Amino acid sequence: MIRYVFFLLSLLFLSACVTQSYEVQSVCEVTDVYNYVVKWEVSPRIEGEVEIFSSADPEKFDLRKPVGKELISKGRADIVIKGSLSRCYFLLIFPDNVRTIVGVRCQKFPTVENFRDVGGYVNADYHTLKWGRLYRSGKLDSISDIDAKRIAKMRVKTIIDLRSVVVNPHLSTTAGIKNQFHFPVIAQRSNPLPRVYRQQFKRGDAIVFMQDVFRDMVLMNKESFRRMFDVLLEEKNYPVILSCRYGNIQSSIATALVLGALDMPEQAIIEDYLLSNKYFNMRAVAAQAMTLPLESQDAITSMMVSDERYLNSALELIKRKYGSIKEFLHIELGVDENDCNRLKAILLE
């Protein structure tokens, strides 16, 4: 039970837990001015100090100069990173050389919705998905120059746009993204908005509609997902962003397939999907429907929210027809065990 609780916490807070003579839980938050707050809990309690190191690359830390040193009993450290547009990760070193890496899962980009790191999840063989390799996000069409520069600092090489419309060529210059692929993931469903406006499409209809959409997107876009895996199987393409309009529908299905290929537990796949409810500013979208009757507003909200039933409808379909995500990938996309092992070699540590 304790291990399961620590696992769930790691999904939410991009933390790493190390089990030796004591357990460490860590979390990182970013302020509105891009300074950081690093927090930790140690069980059982121990005395001593924790050293904190920062890096824009979670795989490389300069251990010669810590950015902070605090008493373990304090439980937190405020880190000021001056004049840096780079995303920061933090390595915490406790007594007996117990280490944990922590970072902010969702990077604050005012002009990009729901941009977050998919790193940190632990698979069935206790291998961890590397930080800073795979991201998911909403559309980057209207990205500001300052946000583009922040993404450029993350050295992103590839964006895979899963929408039905084209990508923004502006990204190649401002964000330094070399590869831009457009692999549309669509559902053959009639647009429900006319019925919403006529008050003929209510919350219950929206829930059933979205379950159908998620199932359709799995079954009707095999070519796009095959091409997506072709890109993901080339290490030279990383880091990669999986992008759709709000980062909560097509990106969720694509991410679920990737996590399944990496043997991540279903609970991790669902937890990652549900994080869109935390990081997608649905109020801005819902505000556009404020003039509609309440039942119509409820229908629109139900289509925009990340509801566990939506993703589960797709996962249950895959399990019923194929037995597992990996069998679906093998039978329908031609992504076999060798491909999955290759993907693991690129993304896991």
Describe the structure using short key phrases:
globular, 349 residues, alpha/beta, 12 strands, single chain, four-stranded antiparallel sheet
What layout of secondary structure does this protein have?
Elements: H1 2-13, E1 23-30, E2 36-43, E3 49-55, E4 68-71, E5 76-79, E6 89-94, E7 98-103, E8 116-117, E9 134-137, H2 145-153, E10 158-161, H3 171-174, E11 179-182, H4 193-197, H5 203-219, H6 222-232, E12 240-243, H7 250-261, H8 266-274, H9 276-279, H10 282-286, H11 294-304, H12 308-322, H13 325-333, H14 337-347
Give me a quick take on this structure.
The chain is 38% helix and 17% strand. It is an alpha/beta fold and 349 residues long.
